[in-house]
Every structure is written in structure tokens, then in C-alpha cells.
Amino acid sequence: MSTTQDSQKYLFGTDVRSSARLNYQHFLAKQQLGYLLHPSIRLEEPHRKIADIGAGTCIWSIELAQQYPEIQFDCYDVTDKQFPSKDLLLKNISLQVHNAFEDFPEHLHGTYDVVHVQMFLTIVKDDDPEPLIRNFMNLLKPGGYLYWVDVDSESVRAIPPKDPSKSASAAVAIAGLMRNPREYKAGWTSKLDTHFTNQGLLDSSLEHSVINPLFTSLHNVHIMMVMDDYVGSSLDPASDRAKALQARLAQTHSEMKDGAGILNDYVVAVGRKAS
């Protein structure tokens, strides 16, 4: 296989706690967006196929496969460590180990009606998702859809407590770290529609879903899970940076108890391959 582009180092774990984080992330995004499959994507005809790329625990496909028992869902990930047991899956779900940054086998080219991608923010290299987009387009049938949900990294922000006497300084610092991470560049998600168009996808659109403030407490839990997973998986626990981040996260948790929050919005991009 030829490599289309190297990925950034994966910053998170693949153990049961990391899987729980992915499942929580899935349900939070579903609650915020109000759908699993974008309403513009039509699947009326039988014998459709969907590729779920970077599927992780396959939770997105597991939910949709129940709604669409006539559609085949093929889950791809670079490792099977977070895949569920095949014995627990519906017959219309398959599990495949494949690195999304490498070319897919030619027999898969032009076979999918939808390619679904979610939360690739931290692994795209050099602020450029277009090598990945080209790779995913190869999988699509003529007229098929590329459907991508991700974090709008530029929207990450700290919310102060209603009580002005309460601090949000640690939350502000963590939000700043997430907006300007040292491990990867994060500005590309807000331009996904432009990247789609650059690669020849038609009717490319980008929607910004602003997080509902009523979900602040739910989102706080997710932020803490993300940061805890990152510190535990990517940093030497004995390092000064890990110790400093753990202390800052403990302070952030205390501020969240007082009403502070860290929120980010989502971006949803849809594009169609020419017929």
C-alpha cells in the first residue's frame, strides 16, 4: 500500500476508559446535532453501503444499523482494540482493520454510498485534510456522499461562573490549550467545505452547531474525560508538564463545581461525488 499522508501521533488510549469516552462523545454530539445521519443524505434505495472511518467502538454504526437493517455498515479503524465482539453485532455490520491514511484496496473503490468520518481533529497533519479527503473519495460511488463531523477548535471557550466572585482562571487556561495545542494544528475544521470543494466534491456545505448552554455540565464531563485521557496516554506521568496539567485540571474541576464551563461547537460538512 502507498501512504497518502502520515497521521499525527494518536494522543489518546484504546482501553475501556478511552472507549467509554468515545461513547460519551458520540451521545453528546448526537444530542447536540439532533441526528446521526445528516438530513440531506437520502438512503431510500435498497442495498446501500456505508463506510464508517475511524470507527473506534463502532457506536455510530451500531445505532444506525438498527434503523437501517437493509444497509451494510463497514467499520474501519487502524486497530481493533476498541471494536466490540462480532457476536454482539447485527449481521449488517462488519469490522475491518485499516489505516485511513493509507490507500484502500482497489476492490473497495467506488463501492460506498456514504463515507462517514468523525472527530479526526487531533490526527490530521499539517493543517491539511485533503490527502484524506482524496482517499475517502476513492471509496465513494458516483453521486455518493462524504459526511464529516468534527470539533470547531476555534470555538473552544471558557464560561465563567454566574457568581463573579468565583474564578475560572484554570478553565480559561485549559480552553486556551485546546484552542492552540502544541501537538497539532487545529484551524482546518472550520474550512472543511473549502477543502471538499478543492478536491472536486459538489454541493459542499459546512454547518456550525453552537453548543446548547444547557449542556454545559454534560460538556464539562466530556472535557475532563478528554484531558484525562490525553495526560494519561501521551505524557510521562513523572514529567513536570504532566504534573502541572493534572494540577490545572483539578483546579478546573473545582471551578466547574462553582459553575464554570468549557464549551466547543461542532462543524458538519457534507459533499457529493460527481455522478
Features:
single chain; 275 residues; alpha/beta; seven-stranded mixed beta sheet; 7 helices; 7 strands
Q: How far apart, in Å, are the first and last alpha carbons?
A: 27 Å
Cα shape: globular
Main pleated-sheet profile: 7 strands, mixed
Mean pLDDT score: 94
User: What's the alpha carbon Rg, rounded to whole Å?
Assistant: 19 Å
Q: How are strands sequenced across the largest beta sheet?
A: 3-2-1-4-5-7-6
Number of strands: 7
The proportion of residues in beta strands is 15-25%
Structural class given helices, strands, pairing?
A: alpha/beta
N-to-C order of helices and strands? HEHEEEHEHHEHHE
Q: Please bin the fraction of helical residues.
A: 25-40%
Number of helices, counting only DSSP H or I runs of 4 residues or more: 7
Low-confidence stretches: none
Please provide a brief summary of the model:
The chain has 275 residues and is an alpha/beta fold.
Structure commentary:
It is a single chain. The protein is an alpha/beta fold and 275 residues long. It is 33% helix and 23% strand. The chain is built from seven helices and seven strands, in the order αβαβββαβααβααβ. Helix 4 packs across helix 7 (240-257). The model has no long low-confidence stretch (mean pLDDT 94).
Indicate the topology.
Layout: H1 16-33, E1 49-53, H2 59-67, E2 72-77, E3 93-97, E4 112-118, H3 130-139, E5 140-159, H4 169-179, H5 192-198, E6 202-209, H6 216-234, H7 240-257, E7 261-272
Parallel strand pairs: 1-2, 1-4, 2-3, 4-5
Antiparallel strand pairs: 5-7, 6-7
Helix pairs in contact: 1-6, 4-7, 6-7
